[in-house]
UniProtKB/TrEMBL annotation:
Gene: murD
GO biological process: cell division; cell wall organization; peptidoglycan biosynthetic process; regulation of cell shape
Sample GO molecular function, one term: ATP binding
Main function: Cell wall formation. Catalyzes the addition of glutamate to the nucleotide precursor UDP-N-acetylmuramoyl-L-alanine (UMA).
Annotated source species: Sporolactobacillus laevolacticus DSM 442
Keywords: ATP-binding, Cell cycle, Cell division, Cell shape, Cell wall biogenesis/degradation, Cytoplasm, Ligase, Nucleotide-binding, Peptidoglycan synthesis
Substrates-to-products reaction catalysed: UDP-N-acetyl-alpha-D-muramoyl-L-alanine + D-glutamate + ATP = UDP-N-acetyl-alpha-D-muramoyl-L-alanyl-D-glutamate + ADP + phosphate + H(+)
Ranges where the Mur ligase C-terminal domain occurs: 314-430
Domain of life: Bacteria
Protein's recorded name: UDP-N-acetylmuramoylalanine--D-glutamate ligase
Enzyme nomenclature, EC number: 6.3.2.9
Pathway involvement of the protein, from the record: Cell wall biogenesis; peptidoglycan biosynthesis
Domain Mur ligase central: 117-292
Binding site for ATP: G119, S120, N121, G122, K123, T124, T125
PANTHER family linked: UDP-N-ACETYLMURAMOYLALANINE--D-GLUTAMATE LIGASE
């Protein structure tokens, strides 16, 4: 970790005690800062809060007192999910107190270069693919960020021999100022998180922070098939441009031609040899190929990873063949776009779909064309969106539609309605919080229930 004396004896406020807040607070204490952590929750029984208090961090819980911010505060490190309308953040900005996320601090301190990965969908899969591919390089990869490990916890151990492969959300990137990845990867831009960003332009601008500080000695790997990515990000980037495309040959990038994956016109492997199903995963693979290719990872090693990688947990995750049914857990499909992609990942296979969850106020009319096109044998619906999805499925002409209480009840129905050779797919198109603590819990319960049929 680089030596940084900027924060010695300076007041730093960490807003939000989650993984990133805990790691950031500990790091700032190690740099000699005067650290306060604030969270609106009651932290009296929180072990992380107790740990921080024991090393001298002031912990303020149960609300957001405005007197925590004044002109003497050097820096605010905010939890990415806390919106900028929060009164403490608004006051900090009014007083010109810098408001950043832990990504900014990690970037300033890291001796290791970064490969940053962002996009509306596919971030985790692409990040993991790049991490696996980079094991074939001269660097020792560390995978962290929005994927589950705070960046401020890994930069303390990272050296020049490492490369940090970081999954980065728009929330995280919006709180960066100097962050400078050597390779930036932008997968796609859909209409996501508009309740937070307000407009798709603001959302895209947040994503564009990933390349804002890049120079001609860096690389931007970008989706040439996405007009939004090209317009909002690639056109204004100063980095070397490394495109990827499913539509055909691109200069200086990764592409598919006649069923073969290429990087800079060198063949990598046949598309049908990939371990992950679906065109969306093929697009993710191209992004990973391009990022690894920039670092000179041998083609042989890249191809080996693409053949053997079976996917990130809960993201179109291959579970197993159970009683002749091929089972996939796509619990991370918390929106229509993700489920749409999943439905097209199994050409020639009949699907029994499990869907439903938290009602965020939207209809599912946008999913109707995909429901019509995919070979769906039956749909099992649960959660708050049950009736809305029922309406969309009826409009799509799905032959069998059943309403069930939850995922636990859906699994035995899925086996009853399917036969050997079919696909059983959990791809909810909704968040999980109406019935489950997280999409991970929902997916784990699905797998547990499937295993009862072995």
């Amino acid at each position: 970790m680089k030596t940084l004396n900027d924060f010695a004896n300076q007041k730093v406020l960490v807003l939000g005690l989650a993984k990133s807040g805990y790691a950031a607070a500990k790091l700032m204490m190690s740099l000699g800062a005067d650290v306060t952590v604030n969270d609106q929750r009651d932290l009296s029984s929180n072990t992380h809060a107790a740990d921080l208090a024991a090393i001298g961090v002031k912990v303020v819980d149960g609300g957001h007192p405005l007197d925590l911010i004044d002109s003497s505060v050097k820096l605010m490190i905010k939890n990415p999910g806390i919106p900028y309308k929060n009164p403490l953040i608004k006051k900090a900005l009014e007083l010109d107190v810098p408001v950043v996320t832990e990504v900014e601090i990690a970037g300033r301190l890291s001796e290791a270069p970064f490969i940053g990965v962002t996009g509306s969908n596919g971030k985790t899969t692409t990040t993991m693919l790049i991490g696996e591919m980079m094991k074939g390089s001269a660097y020792q990869p560390i995978v962290a960020g929005n994927i589950g490990t705070a960046l401020t916890s890994v930069v303390q151990k990272a050296t020049e021999r490492n490369v940090i492969v970081a999954e980065l959300s728009s929330f995280q990137l919006l709180g960066t100022r100097q962050f400078h990845p050597h390779v930036a990867v932008v997968l796609n831009i859909f209409d996501h998180h508009l309740d937070y960003h307000g407009t798709v332009e603001n959302y895209a601008e947040a994503k564009a922070h990933i390349t804002a500080n890049q120079t001609a000695s860096d690389a931007l790997v970008y989706n040439a098939d996405s007009e939004r990515v090209v317009h909002f990000i690639a056109e204004s980037s100063k980095a070397e441009k490394v495109p990827f495309s499913l539509k055909g040959r691109v200069e200086n990038g990764a592409y598919v031609s006649e069923g073969t994956i290429y990087f800079k016109d060198e063949p990598i492997m046949k598309c049908d040899e990939m371990g992950l199903p679906g065109d969306h995963n093929l697009s993710n693979a191209l992004a990973a190929v391009a990022a690894a290719g920039v670092y000179g990872v041998p083609v042989k090693y890249i191809a080996q990873v693409l053949r053997t990688f079976k996917g990130a947990r809960h993201r179109l995750e291959y579970v197993d063949v159970v009683q002749g049914r091929t089972v996939y857990n796509d619990s991370k499909a918390t929106n229509i776009i993700a489920t749409s992609k999943a439905l097209h990942a199994f050409p020639g296979k009949e699907i029994v779909l499990l869907a439903g969850g938290l009602d965020r106020g939207n209809t599912f009319d946008a999913l109707i064309p995909d429901l019509k096109k995919a070979p769906i044998k039956a749909v099992l619906l649960f959660g708050q969106t049950q009736k809305k999805l029922l309406d969309a499925c009826k409009k799509a002409g799905i032959p069998v539609i059943k309403e069930v209480e939850n995922v636990e009840a859906a699994v035995p129905e899925a086996f009853a309605l399917s036969q050997p050779g079919d696909v059983i797919l959990l791809s909810p198109a909704c968040a999980s919080w109406d019935q489950y603590e997280s999409f991970e819990q929902r997916g784990d319960i699905f797998i547990t229930e499937v295993n009862k049929f072995r």
